[in-house]
Amino acid sequence: MRFLCLYKPGKPECPPTQEAMNAMGKLIEEAMQAGWLIATEGCLPSSAGARVRLADGKFVVTDGPFAETKEVIGGFAIIRADSKQEAVELTKYFLETAGGGETEIRQLYESPAA
After folding, report:
1. pLDDT tens, 25-62?
2. What value does the mean pLDDT take over residues 86-110?
3. DSSP code of 70?
4. What is the mean pLDDT of the chain?
5. Which is nearest to 82 in space by CA: 35, 50, 48, 41?
6. Other residues' Cβ atoms within 10 Å of the Cβ of residue 77
7. Cβ pair 69, 10 in contact under 8 A
8. pTM (2 decimals)?
9. In principle, which of 38, 40, 95, 101 could form an S-S bond with 77, CB 3.0–4.6 Å?
10. What CATH number labels 2-107?
């Protein structure tokens, strides 16, 4: 099974230290070699982003930074796990390395084999 993990840092807009970047680099390398990490990327600060909404046939575009920092996504990962519980355990490992925050885990749809 594949899972999308959306990471919301505990301190959004605060750039990580070089030590934290090195620890995350090591985790990513180990996870890729172990085969449970499929893809991952960090996001630039929300000040460089925008939100696009469609309501009642009209688009509303809001440029960052965004006021609700608890909703700011700091990055994502696509992981492979045998169960949701395993995905939770792998995410706990990630959050320890990241130094906190919150991650939403969503199982990805996979079409049945033909």
Report:
1. 999 999 999 999 999 998 888 888 898 999 999 999 99
2. 93
3. G
4. 90
5. 35
6. 23
7. no
8. 0.85
9. 40
10. 3.30.70.1060
Residue 42 identity: G
Conformational region of residue 91, where left means phi above 0, alpha means psi within -120 to 50, and beta covers everything else: alpha
Backbone φ/ψ region at 8: left (φ over 0), alpha (ψ -120 to 50), beta = beta
User: Vertex 34, ends 112 and 3: CA angle to 5°?
Assistant: 40
Q: Is the pLDDT of residue 13 over 90?
A: no
- Burial code (b: 16+ CB inside 10 Å, e: under 16) for 86-103 equals ebeebbeebbeebeebeb
Q: Look up tokens 């990805």; give the residue.
A: 108
E runs forming strands in 1-114: 2-8, 37-42, 50-55, 58-63, 75-80, 102-107
The pLDDT of residue 20: 86
Which amino acid type is present at position 41?
E
